Structures are given as C-alpha cells and as structure tokens.
Amino acid sequence: MNKVRRTYKEEALFLLSRGDWKKALEAFQKHLEKEPEDLRSRLKKAELLEKLGKRKEALTEYQGIAEAYASDGFLLQAISVNKMILRMNPSLREIHERLAQLYAQKVQTAPSSRRLPNIPFLSDLTQEELQSLLDRVQINTYPKEAILCQEGEPGDSLMVICRGKVGIYKRAKGKEEVCVRELEEGDCFGELGFFLDRNRQATVKSLVECEVMELNRKELEEIIRKYPRVNELLEDLFQKRVLDNLLALSPLFSPLSVADRKEVAKRFRLLNLPAETLIFKGGDPPRSLYLIQRGEVEIFTQDRHKKHISVGKLGGGDFFGEIGVLFNTPRMAFAKTTQPTDLLELDKENFDRLLKKFPQLQSVTKEISSRRLIRMKEALFQLKSGRTEECWV
Predict the structure, then answer these.
(1) pLDDT tens-digit map of 362-386
(2) Is 216 within 8 Å of 170 (Cβ atoms)?
(3) What's 238's DSSP letter?
(4) Half-sphere exposure (CA, 13 Å, Cβ side) for 385?
(5) What is the CATH number of domain 138-248?
(6) What is the CB-side half-sphere exposure of residue 326 using CA atoms within 13 A?
(7) Rounded to 5 degrees, what are φ and ψ at 173?
(8) Which CATH class is domain 8-117?
(9) CA-to-CA distance for 184 and 162, rounded, in angstroms?
C-alpha cells in the first residue's frame, strides 16, 4: 500500500505538532520557496526562528510580514504582528508609523472593484488617528476554550478578533449555557458594555486559539481629546451596531424587523448632559422619550413640602418618558441626571410618525405603557403614603 506523501506545509505542521521546531522550520522554508506569498506560513517561520533563539532573523521576518499585511489591506493582522515585534524589541516604536502609512496608501489606491476588509471603526481612521491608536491598543492571545468575557461582569472595552474564532454563549433561566453565535476575524464584541456602562451581556469563549485586539474606553477618550472626529466614528459604530441591539432587546421595538429598527434608530438624536441636569419636571408637556446610552437618570417626585422623593434610578440601555408621549398626558414625575449622561432622544413628532408607519407598535406600546403607568401610580401612592423604598419605573 503506497503511503501518501505530505506536502512541505503539511510536513511542517506535523513536525510543529510534534515539537520538532528545527525540522519544522526547515519544512516551512522549503514550502515558502515555492509559495512566498503564504503569510500565515511566514508567520509560523518567524515564530520558530524566535523559539530557536534566532531573534534577529525573527524580527526581520516579522517586519516583512507586517508590511505585507498592511500593504494588502489586512490591518488587524498587521497590528497583531507589530505587537509581536514590540514584544521582542520595545524600542521599535516607529513601526506603528510605517504600518499606518502603508495602510493609508492601500486605502487610497485600492480599486473600487476590490473592497478592503471592513473593520468596525478602524477602517475609517486617518493615518494620523490610526497611528495614535496603535500605541494604545492591547493584543491578547487566548488558547482554545478560554473565557474572554464572563456574562454579568463589568466591561468597558471593545474587542476585535484579529485571528481565530469565538463563540457567544448565553444562559437561559434554569437552562444550560448555549452558543448563540460565532464570530470570526474582523468581528467585534463587547460593545454593549463599552458604550452603555453595562455588565457583559454574554460569555465569550475561544473556539480555537485566538488573538484579540482590545480598545479600552479610557485610552480612546485620550485619543478623542486630541482627535475629536474619532468620537463621531464611535457614535456611528454605536448607531450601526449597539442601538439596533438595544432596540431588538427592548419590549417597545423588538416586534419590528431589522430593517424597520434601522429606520427607528435614524430618528434618535444624541444629547450629552452634565450631572444634575433636569430633563423634565412633573406637569411638563410630553415632548420626547429617552434611551440612556451611558450614565444614570433618577426618576423622582416631590411631596407638598417640595421634599425630594426618589422613585428609581435608571442606567445604560433603559427607556423612560414614553408614557406621557404615548398617552399625551403631562409628566407625572421629575427626571434628572445624577452623573454626566449621554441620552438618545426620540421626540414626540417622530414617535407619532413611527406609530403611523408601523401599526404593530401601537398595540405593543400601549400594553407596555399601561402596565408601567399602573406601576408608576402605585409607586407614587406608596411614596405619598410614607413608603419611600425605590421602585423601578
């Protein structure tokens, strides 16, 4: 029986799995003589050179790979390799400038017939903005079956997969954890915690060995101070990814299709409010409903002596103010920010247009608002009766 001969690449991978680094390197070199454009194999070769103590040769190979990735428009892979270079030689900070320059050139010269890989937020940065970001991002490597994020934990970073695949896991009440979605290179996750000051909404596990780029909110805020346009790009990412997720989870808008929710999302406008800003007061006419993007809003009332009585506090992702808008009744309570807060406002005129355009919203919104109206009246009655415990509105 004839034994099937392995290719040089197959042989290299086999030897690598056996831990025979020297022979694996030789096999990769023979493979690359025939296929020098195989960047993944070049990366394996560089890793083996580093493991075998040939640091100078490894650095040269890594630099060539990073430039090739950037020139081909594969930004995430180039960033990942750059971080490997800096791990070996932290003094080579200028490589970020070179990478940003090569990628910007590729964006400018790429023919319209060939779209570059689209990377959320990063693809729209200028060369200068990208270079500033590269000094701040972190690249983390995770083995197979590692937990990258745990449902319920605090989270304020946005993550982008440079290499590998992850699973998004949710646990229904009383049931086992199940994988609800898989993400691959170029996909991002963690956006709800990043934009909304919320805990992680799912557990993320690596399905294979992964490299993940992490964008920390504090680091990005530093960049925004220098490059205000970056904030516009982040808001665009929020509108495209996060707001639709929130609307899909909201009992108000979840009955709509994806396309219809996009139409709804366009009608919200962003308000950046400082702490202690009064949004509306009891007796005001209903002008808008609100969705909290980030921060906190307190709902409160006053007794006849103008004493402040808290009804509840709302955070990222919560809606409020829809009762008056729907029923066209004066505000029953006060609302104010307790800290700097970003609100998404949907005014009454746009809300009324949406109700006409999407009739299914009428019955759902009335049902939900009626229940909330009853709870609000009960809460106010309890508070006026001397019970001052907080109630969700």
Answers:
(1) 777 777 767 766 766 666 666 666 5
(2) no
(3) I
(4) 8
(5) 2.60.120.10
(6) 20
(7) -60, 125
(8) mainly alpha
(9) 8
